[in-house]
Amino acid sequence: MPPRLTLPLWPFLRSPATSSLLPPFLIPCLNPSTLHRHASILSSLSDNPLSYKKKIRRGRGPSSGKGKTSGRGHKGQKQHGKVPRGFNGGQTPLEVVHGVRGFVNVFSVDMQPLNLSRIQSWIDQGRIDPSRPITIKELSDSNCVGKIKDGVKLLADGAQELRTPIKIIISRASKSAIAAVEKIGGSVMTRFYTPFAIQRILRGTTDPINSLRSDRIMMQEEQDDDEDDEFDDDDDEDDEDVDASSEAGSKALVGDAMATSEASTIASAVAAAHPKRSGFRHRLPDPTSRKDIEYYRDPIHRGYLSHLVTEGQTPSLFFKIPRAGKGVAGKRAVAKAAIGENRIW
């Protein structure tokens, strides 16, 4: 420990002669509290726990735990040198004799199974409310399913036990499960989820039902309803016999009032019609790969994009409406006839 300055030396340091010999910036350092230096803290300095890994010192005696043979054992190829990976002592490796079989399915998903009997049991216990839509958040909060990775698939095990109509929104569903739910008056809708979206839904920061495409559908339906109401109003007005001047004045006043209030009331009207749209931090994504888009476009799977498939089409993105032509020969005949008509001589 460095030597300390005792108190009897303090009057000597405060003398004018000593103060005149010191530079001006060192005079504040003559405070007794600064002269007492405690160097004991230097012996207790250490890094954070687990911030570094101590190196193993091999061959430094038996007390180190890695002495003598340094952890390699006695004799043999592994003690004297290194063994290549997959080396079988000169024998032909099994993957060479029999070949590598099988493959890794890159399209496989880890779906959590959910049976209809379990849903009915949770309803009987009062852990799920059948009057509200059942989503993966309700299933997770009620502990009806375990850890959800890629989604939840509805299965028809115990379909004869289901007796309560339910409205369930889930990742996937089997055909027999869909038939069993719809038989008693329920409905099933399958929609796309990503693993990150599932985590945000369980945390309550993402809407488990609505997304950009579903919002677009709802807005289109609202516009269609408004247009139908306006058309009905126009018919009623045409049937009535009202004075032309008074009718024109009233229409002008109503039009001005609607123009001024339309911009301010449209957001509140949409929020009132669909309260689950607002209040979420992240939006729910829609599928982007062809395989997922085609799955949720299929009405058989009760996909939420099945409205995009018009009559006479299939869920495939490569579907084209058959042409009503006569084949290659008919096309050539039509082309020759057109050329003949356009000839001058």
Describe the protein in words:
The protein is mainly α and 345 residues long. Helices cover 39% and strands 6% of the residues. It has 13 helices and five strands. The strands form two sheets. Strands 1-2-4 form a three-stranded parallel beta sheet. The chain has a two-stranded parallel ribbon with strand order 3-5. The longest helix has 30 residues, at 244-273. The model is unreliable at 5-9 and 241-276 (pLDDT under 50).
Fold blueprint:
Layout: H1 9-13, H2 16-21, H3 32-35, H4 77-80, H5 94-97, E1 111-115, H6 116-124, H7 136-141, E2 151-155, E3 167-170, E4 172-173, H8 175-183, E5 187-190, H9 195-203, H10 212-239, H11 244-273, H12 290-296, H13 327-341
Parallel strand pairs: 1-2, 2-4, 3-5
Shape assignment: extended
Total beta strands: 5
Rg result: 40 Å
Q: What's the helical proportion of residues?
A: 25-40%
Count of DSSP helices?
A: 13
Q: Which strand order do you get reading across the main beta sheet?
A: 1-2-4
Beta-strand portion reads: 5-15%
What string gives the helices and strands in order?
HHHHHEHHEEEHEHHHHH
Largest sheet descriptor: 3 strands, parallel
